[in-house]
Amino acid sequence: MFLVILSVVVGFTVRWLLFKTGLMHTIRKRFRRVVDWCHVYQFLKVPEFNETNNMRRNNLHRKVSLYLHSLPSIEDADFTNLITGNDQTDIVLRLDPNQTIEDRFLGATLYWFNQKTEPNRISTFVLQIRKTDKRRILRQYLRHINTVADEMENQSKRNLRLFMNASAVEDGGTRWRSVPFTHPAMFETMAMEKDLKNKIKSDLESFLKAKQYYRKIGRAWKRSYLLYGAGGTGKSSFVAAMANFLRYDVYDVDLSKIRGDSDLMFLLTETTAKSVIVVED
């Protein structure tokens, strides 16, 4: 009798969760339509080929493609294509035609979709943006896309490095020694609550997009995380996953080899602008 009641309760709970998930998805889509009706949008097209010369590819289209397919929100699209990356062992997501993904930049919400025309299936990326946001952020947003795409291309051509500081007595030029960074940790494979994982990835994405904003308000473009816990709880794996996600080199600071504050400042000035700096207490 107990097993029958338990199976009924479990079955009801599963059905309720499925219903709730589907209901929330429907509510979000309906709410977005209402928001669309309340705002005046403009649609900007980025064609695959230049209109003046159909045989010449549009360089901006290539950069937009790189940028969009790096967004975490592509995982939430209704349909995406799974294809092989440059490395045959990599599986990457590609946006399906007429599917929409969302992006956020400096407080604005923007929408992209891939429109393919028949019969040649030529791709055109379409940006949906509120007119008020267009006047405020469009130029900065396009510069951001260009910068991110260039960085992705440059980073894909090199391997990450792990830097470790040498003692002051070994000083014969740079204090940093490096080896290839090959830690395999990724956010996708980490044992972490999904909501927390998505929150961290979203925070990192927002940080990457905010360089111009930090400069505008006169603050250093940096982001800090405090990791604490006993050995073996995943702190190093988290750092590695962050480095692999950002495609940043890692600088591991050994405080026992530093003579004082001025020595530490000297070490930090020798790091690159886009890097993960780890200080263990």
Task: Describe, in plain words, how this protein is organized in 3D.
This protein is an alpha+beta fold and 281 residues long. The chain has helices at residues 2-38, 59-68, 131-156, 194-209, 211-216, 235-246, 261-269, and strands at residues 41-47, 49-50, 53-57, 80-84, 91-95, 100-105, 108-117, 122-130, 161-165, 176-180, 249-253, 275-279. It has a four-stranded antiparallel beta sheet, with helices on one face. Strands 10-9-11-12 form a four-stranded mixed beta sheet, covered by helices on one side. Strand 11 (249-253), helix 7 and strand 12 (275-279) form a beta-alpha-beta unit. The chain is globular and about 65 Å long. The model is unreliable at 84-91 (pLDDT under 50).
Write a brief caption for the model.
The chain has 281 residues and is an alpha+beta fold. It is built from 7 helices and 12 strands. About 3% of the residues have low confidence.
What would the keywords be for this entry?
single chain; 281 residues; alpha+beta; 4-stranded antiparallel beta sheet; 4-stranded mixed beta sheet; 7 helices; 41% helix; 25% strand
Taken as a percent bin, the fraction of beta residues is 15-25%
Counted beta strands: 12
Output mean pLDDT.
Answer: 78
Shape: globular
Radius of gyration, rounded?
23 Å
Characterize the main sheet: 4 strands, antiparallel
Q: Termini separation (Å)?
A: 57 Å
Strand order of the largest sheet: 1-8-7-6
Number of helices: 7
Q: Topology as H/E string? A: HEEEHEEEEEHEEHHHEHE
Question: Which structural class fits the helix and strand makeup?
Answer: alpha+beta
